């Protein structure tokens, strides 16, 4: 089959996101409207790239099963346009914080797309209780030294959670021998992957029969990477000013109890809501700190919320 050119695909995808405004405006009768609807609204198959990889480890695209599975994830993520645009907007805000930490702690840059797949770069909890942008379960967070209680939950601290994610994934890489398997274990758990390796006598993610969620997991990450790396190819159009900015901040040390964060933050010219936007790991309106532990509060530079 002749492949659609990059330019042709980009133009095609621009046409599919919605019915043309002109199609509605130029349709004074039901008959004309239906004719315009059929002629102007088209959905196109996406050509599968010649090569795809995760962290430098190639996806075996010569395998027909693998091609079908990546095709599914490319279609699902490329045609969910509203979600895709939000991912680009949030990535502009959070990737500058995540990327240098991945590099510093020895994790391939591609793992930033794992964070996208986990949380869509939102500070939310999953139905299972995984929290923060990296979606750690409470037990895993505690195991890796994060403080998690009713006053502080460091799973929501992007810097600390990224460092823990790097430690977890590097340990998984040492165990399973590949970054792809390490990524899969982030979803299924080390024990879950070990069980299937022992049952099936296979060590490659692409050769294992896994539950539906884990079997799609790495494919979804790679599809997100492909789309976010080549937005124009998949019909996403935006300007830098359309993206969410990274707000510069400075740190303030706190090593005592805080009776009321809403009062504490007033001298810095912001309110409790803004404090929480930049410090989502603070879980209550006050802080008990009998041990005198040091915390560092992110305060936005002046002028950004006025």
TrEMBL record:
UniProt KW Signal keyword: yes
Leader sequence segment: 1-23
Keyword vocabulary terms for this entry: Signal
InterPro entries linked to this entry: Lysozyme-like_dom_sf (IPR023346), Transglycosylase_SLT_dom_1 (IPR008258)
Signal recorded as keyword: yes
Domain called Transglycosylase SLT: residue spans: 103-206
Family membership noted in the UniProt record: Belongs to the transglycosylase Slt family.
Name assigned to this protein: Soluble lytic murein transglycosylase-like protein
